[in-house]
Amino acid sequence: MATSMELLNTILHLLTLAALAVGSFLLATVKKGTESALLWPGQFARELEKTRGVERQEQRFKSYGKLWMTLRPLALYDRSVAARSNNHWEAVDCTQ
């Protein structure tokens, strides 16, 4: 039969192993949390820039749409007019 001293040593050994396992787990969790906290501002900035890029693209499409609606009546459909205007520059009065 094991003596009380051997039993106490076994219990202390198991408690030490359990404490080391819990400590290692807590250390790994804190390390992962710290890394993600340090990376968070960069990730946030990238996502914000993506959102702003999409908003700028939508504004650009709206602006081009308005420009196209304005310039659509000025479109040339006759090839002879286009050929003539490409070869000979004509003065156009834009103040009307």
Detailed description of the structure:
The protein has 96 residues and is mainly α. It has one domain (4-71). The protein is 80% helix and 0% strand. It is built from two helices and no strands. The longest helix is centred in the middle third of the chain and has 68 residues, at 4-71. It is rod-shaped and about 110 Å long.
Topology at a glance:
Blueprint: H1 4-71, H2 79-87
Name a few traits of the molecule.
96 residues, mainly alpha, 2 helices, 80% helix, rod-shaped
Task: Give the DSSP E fraction (strand runs of 2 or more residues).
Answer: under 5%
Number of helices: 2
Shape: rod-shaped
The level of helicity is over 70%
Q: Care to give the gist of this entry?
A:
Helix content is 80%, strand content 0%.
